[in-house]
Amino acid sequence: MESNEIGLGTKIAVFIAAVIAWSHDAVGLTITNFLATPIMNEFHVGTADMGFVFSAQYISAIFGAIIFGELADRIGRRLALVLAVTFEAVSTALTALANSFLVLAALRIISGLGVSWGIGYALISEELGHRRRGLYGGLLQGTFILGYIISAITTKFVYPHYGWRAAYLIALYPIPIILPLMKFVPESTVWSKSKELEEEKATDKEKSRVKVLLKGPFLKLTLIATITFWAAEAAYHSVVDWAPTMVHVVFKYSVANASVLVMEIALLAIPVLIIIGAASDYIGRRLAFSLSALTGMTASLLVWYFTIVTFNPSKAITALFIVPFGFGSHALFGIWLSEIYPTSIRATATGFVFSVARGLALGGFIVGLLTQKAGVPLVTSMMLTASFLFALMSIFAWLLPETKGKVILAEPEIGGV
Questions:
Q1: CA-CA distance, 399 to 417, in Å (whole number)?
Q2: What predicted TM-score, i.e. pTM, was given to this entire model?
């Protein structure tokens, strides 16, 4: 029997806590994108320097996933979530005090360590039950856009009056919310029971969780999961990073109108994430993930065809609106990983695999390289790269175990599958 029988009010509090953590991750990772121009102007640096900061945040998140994932698996989901969110909030807000670009870059890299994504998914996977876990995952993943919107609104209303430094202070908003909320968020019952069993059986509790992921029976599983989700992230960046430029240059939209169109496409991803997540509760994680990827692949090929083979802007734009169905697979990242790995390493594994996949997702860089160095047309670089990655996703998904409807229980061991 599943051990997480909690009331509706408590379930809502748990979900809100995970939403605050994940949406705040989005603020920390995107606020600098909106403020890049005034920062570059003040410190007299170029796009290469700024691009380094963008990428370095994601790379540092890999190490943050290890640090805070280990904490969550050792001291509990609840406290680790608060520590991760607080760390990221404070380090992001401190960026306002940067007196040089080097200091700013250092603070952005440090802020990237504050990873709470894996902790939030471990918590909701253990506490919200197994029947609608895919739906919960899709809903939670979709709230990333909330952080993006917070960054955009802050830039629009705070920056013009108070400057880019003041805009970074928005990062403190979770602290007065999440601390009182924790009164209503219990520690994961599954984790608590697992910890009790661990103590009773005197298992190897001092063993590093991330080392467990990279050897023995978990090594193959971790490699397959990382490649699968890396392909998904790289496909996303192959399209999204260059979409505004493509729409502007190829289809002759103004910069402003191109941005609006891409924002509309991004917003479409929210219901898509919910649909794919909910569908996986019925047809399974592998099939839902694969169908999502194949839809994205087909749409990408159609964009390429209606742009390069036969130039038909209206049909190409229509196909571009279908591409986000390929990103619906992202709804399953946290939930699927939480079901694959045991309780004793769940937070570490979930955060580590996702952060490595996201940190090494160089789709945007690959597209830029093909276009600039090899002379490949931008649309071809974008859409054929994305199509290949979507195909790779759909294949590797079938190498992961099917976990639909899995009841998550406590386990005392951190070795063995």
A1: 15
A2: 0.85
